[in-house]
Design brief:
This protein is α+β, with helices and mostly antiparallel strands and about 375 residues long. The protein folds into 2 domains: about 220 residues, P-loop containing nucleotide triphosphate hydrolases (Rossmann fold, 3-Layer(aba) Sandwich), CATH 3.40.50.300; about 140 residues, Nucleic acid-binding proteins (OB fold (Dihydrolipoamide Acetyltransferase, E2P)). The chain is about 25% helix and about 30% strand. The chain is built from 9 helices and 20 strands. The strands form 5 sheets. Strands 6-7-8-3-9-10 form a 6-stranded mixed sheet, sandwiched between helices. The protein has a 5-stranded antiparallel sheet with strand order 15-19-16-17-18, with no helix packed on it. Helix 2 crosses helix 3, helix 2 packs parallel to helix 4 and helix 3 packs across helix 4. The protein is elongated, with a radius of gyration of 24 Å. About 40% of the residues are buried.
Length: about 375
């Protein structure tokens, strides 16, 4: 287990800035997911931690040691790639044992570590088979086994489930989390898939444009997105955003949406222009609601439905029960759960401080009290 600290980490490729002045602490034994769209800087950040890329400036510390200039093999970190990087002409046993043979470890110790890793990953019966004929899922387990046997300070994983089909990817998410719990190892995992991140992470680091926008627990990320981008990227469907009339004043307990007064948690900041953000499950179909709209689509998802409602302020998505019978064209009124609404500064895209969020953070340190 190890603590990894990134201090003012910056990476440029010519005129392109891939990672911009990143400060991040990855706690000892935590499962941390770097999440964001393609090109956001997450893989470049991971490769700098691994020593596969050198930063333009800044520092990387592992357990307090400055490893910024050390080569990858000097950092005692295991890297699991998306494309497995296995030797197809070798058996599973030899693939897993390969990194240990290069370290001069005794045959008895190698055999013991390989057997233990294979048992943990449930591939004992595959040890004498060549990897070329294995399924994608089994090859991924072999790649994980090769990382495990080294007993590294940390595991780094770059979209290791990206080539698997959806059903098997879901199963492997569970297996990876169980493996992490068993090893209690520091893990940094890169993905663009929010479902993977929410299923496995202790902490999610959302990146975009080379910057860290928010680093927090999945609960905090979902309920208190730090920026409009995070609220739009996390959640399916994403958070609704509606323009506020005339901005927001400090201490305000309501805002105006298209001339309609909407109660909100008391704000501790002001903004000349603002957006109200609310998750679809916190929008209520309310026949007395002052905000009116027309149902234009109904997404049936088995356990629930998502109604797509056209209003004068734009599209609003509402989560309703699976048996809600409103047809396209129906006129509805809308209201919002006051304690679940958030306000954002339009110019910066950042969340405005509010009393509800502060109470949640004070509750247990990461927003988990907000339920």
């Amino acid at each position: 287990m190890s603590t990894i600290v990134l201090s003012n980490l910056h990476k440029r490729f010519g005129d392109f800035t891939a990672v911009r002045d990143t400060n991040l602490t990855i706690g000892n034994g935590r499962f941390v997911v770097l999440l964001g769209p393609s090109g956001c800087g997450k893989t470049t950040t991971l490769r700098m931690i691994a020593g596969l890329e050198l930063p333009t400036s800044g520092q990387i510390l592992i357990d307090g040691e400055n490893v910024t200039a050390l080569r990858a093999r000097q950092r005692d970190i295991a890297f699991v790639f998306q494309m497995f990087a296995l030797y197809p002409h070798m058996t599973v046993r030899n693939n897993i044992a390969f990194p240990l043979k290069n370290e001069g470890i005794t045959r008895r110790e190698i055999a013991a570590r390989v057997d233990a890793a294979a048992h943990m990953l449930r591939i004992d019966n595959l040890l004498d088979r060549k990897t070329g004929g294995l399924s994608g899922g089994d090859r991924q387990r072999v790649a994980l086994g090769r990382a495990i046997v080294r007993h590294p300070k940390a595991f780094l994983m770059d979209e290791p489930l990206g080539t698997l089909d959806a059903d098997f990817r879901e199963l492997m998410c569970l297996e990876l989390r169980k493996l992490h719990n068993a090893l209690n190892a520091t893990t940094v995992y890169v993905t663009h898939d929010q479902r993977e991140a929410m299923a496995m992470a202790d902490d999610i680091v959302v990146m975009n444009g080379g910057e860290v926008l928010q680093s927090a627990s999945p609960h905090e990320i979902y309920h208190f997105p730090a920026t409009v981008f995070v609220g739009s990227f996390i959640g399916s469907p994403p958070m609704n955003f509606l323009a506020v009339d005339g901005g927001v004043d400090t201490g305000a307990e309501s805002v105006s949406l298209g001339g309609v007064a909407v109660p909100v948690p008391r704000t501790d900041a002001s903004a000349a222009k603002a957006l109200l953000g609310v998750r679809p499950e916190h929008v209520l179909i309310d026949e007395h609601g002052a905000l009116r709209g027309r149902v234009i689509a109904d997404e049936y998802l088995g356990s629930h439905q998502i109604l797509v409602i056209e209003t004068a302020l734009g599209i609003v998505r509402v989560r309703v029960g699976k048996d809600d019978g409103r047809a396209a064209g129906s006129q509805v009124g809308l209201s919002f759960r006051k304690e679940r609404t958030l306000l954002y500064d339009t110019s910066s895209g950042k969340l405005l401080r509010c009393a509800a969020r502060q109470m949640a953070v004070n509750g247990n340190g990461n927003g988990g009290a907000y339920v």
